[in-house]
Amino acid sequence: MAVWIQGGKLVDPVRNRVEELDLLIEGDRVVKILPTGVFSDTGPRLKRIDARNRLVVPGLVDMHVHLREPGYEHKETIATGSLSGVAGGFTALACMPNTRPVNDQRTVTEFILARAGEANLCRVYPIAAITRGQQGGTLTDFAELRKAGAVGVSDDGQPVKNRELMRQAMELGRSLGLAVISHCEDLNLSAGGMMHEGAVSSHLGLRGIPAASEEVMVRREISLAQETGFPVHIAHVSTAGSVEWIRRAKEEGIPVSAETAPHYFSLDHRAVEEYNTCAKMNPPLREPGDVEAIKKGLAEGVIDVIATDHAPHSQAEKNVAFEKAPFGIVGLETALPLTLCLIREGILTWPEAVRKLSYLPATLLGVAGGVLREGAVADLAILDPEYSYVVKAEEMRSKSKNSPFIGWSMKGINVMTMVGGRIVWERNI
To answer: For a FRET experiment, which of 32, 53, 285, 424 has its CA 20 to 30 Å from that of 254?
Structure first.
């Protein structure tokens, strides 16, 4: 059955436009994009979707999630994470390798893809480990992992401490078309830290993680990219210093890209003041000045991508003393409304926001998506930017509910998600 999406405002992140247009979808493709009112087919096999007062956007692409399976299914599964993703407007998720076993070999990559196929919700793109077991000693077989379906490599959760090993990873990644994603952290500086090192950590009596622990590794990766000409992507940028180093690198033409997460432009380290374990993450929430620098970096294009770093943990794991709680929060279902705050603040336009949530992550990963054109795969989301609600744990589709945004009043929500022309999520509001 063909689908006719009527009267929506189509956001084009490439041409930088928002236009009222109709989309006609047949099979898994967009076959026609026409001004509203031009198309008038009334055939019985045509499903009509009223998108008036709503925005139609390319399906969001999250290049940094933790789906936990295999090994940590009590936190999340590929099926529950995919459901959380499509509820949030994401049609594609790139999952990090710190599972059990680590995704450092073909069989694990193939297992992830098989589970994603069984879930049959969104597209799942495995990110394989840079080093075996994420131990930092020996590179994985990049070519074999690429053949199995990996689209990138990262030791996310751990830095690659050996400079020469990271240089080799960047070279191999470029030659094989794999994105190389760096977790920037100097473990000597961050060891034992629980939150950002500053006035709040001193007041709470918690050991801090200094901004320098991120920034020195950002500088190293930039220097490697400069020396070799091989691209590198910096994950979860959280500090003003990192933004400045990335800005300078881009001005010099060094092949570096970067992402941040919604919590780094929505919260600062004061969120931890009540020992809130749902505000414990790595890198940690930083100071208000860092938040402003992240926003400026997004506005200026220094930070290319908004990714969630969706990191589920069970209630039992988070409901402990702050020092014992694991790092990480869920984010797939709150990324969109938090990003809409940037639009309302005038920091980003709609096309710019969608570019960072969809087009650029797809481009950096080398996967389809990120734009809606005639002939393109029909991966899309339909958004109601004015719908107001309160975030409730019981309404989250993720298996885990470890979010600092529970109880927040939000404005803007995803109401429908299509993957390959198939409706995989619909919200009745």
So the answer is: 285
Q: Where are the domains of the chain?
A: 2-56+375-426, 58-365
DSSP letter string over 35-60?
ETTT-----TTEEEEE-TTSEEEEPE
Measured between alpha carbons, how far is 107 from 162 in angstroms, rounded to an integer?
Answer: 26
Mean pLDDT, residues 188-203 taken together = 98
Question: What's the pLDDT tens digit per position in 309-339?
Answer: 999 999 999 999 999 999 999 999 999 999 9
Please report which residue ranges of 306-386 form alpha helices under DSSP H.
315-318, 335-344, 350-354, 360-365
Report the pLDDT value the prediction gives residue 42, as an integer from 0 to 100: 59
In angstroms, rounded to a whole number, what is the distance separating the alpha carbons of residues 107 and 148?
Answer: 8
DSSP secondary structure string for all residues of 147-188: HHT--EEE-TTS----HHHHHHHHHHHHHHT-EEEE----HH
Give the active site residue among 12, 268, 309, 384: 309
* Predicted confidence band of residue 365 (pLDDT cuts 50, 70, 90): very high
309 is catalytic: yes
Domain 2-56+375-426 has CATH 2.30.40.10: yes
User: What pLDDT is stored for residue 429 in this prediction?
Assistant: 86
Pick the CATH number of 58-365 from 3.30.2350.10, 3.30.870.10, 3.40.50.2300, 3.20.20.140: 3.20.20.140
Q: Residue 375: pLDDT band by 50, 70, 90 thresholds?
A: very high
Question: 206-251, pLDDT tens digit by residue?
Answer: 999 999 999 999 999 999 999 999 999 999 999 999 999 999 999 9
Q: What are the backbone angles phi and psi of residue 365, rounded to the nearest 5°?
A: -85, -10
Q: Do 351 and 365 form a contact (C-beta atoms < 8 A)?
A: no
Give the separation between CA 37 and CA 35, rounded to whole angstroms. 6
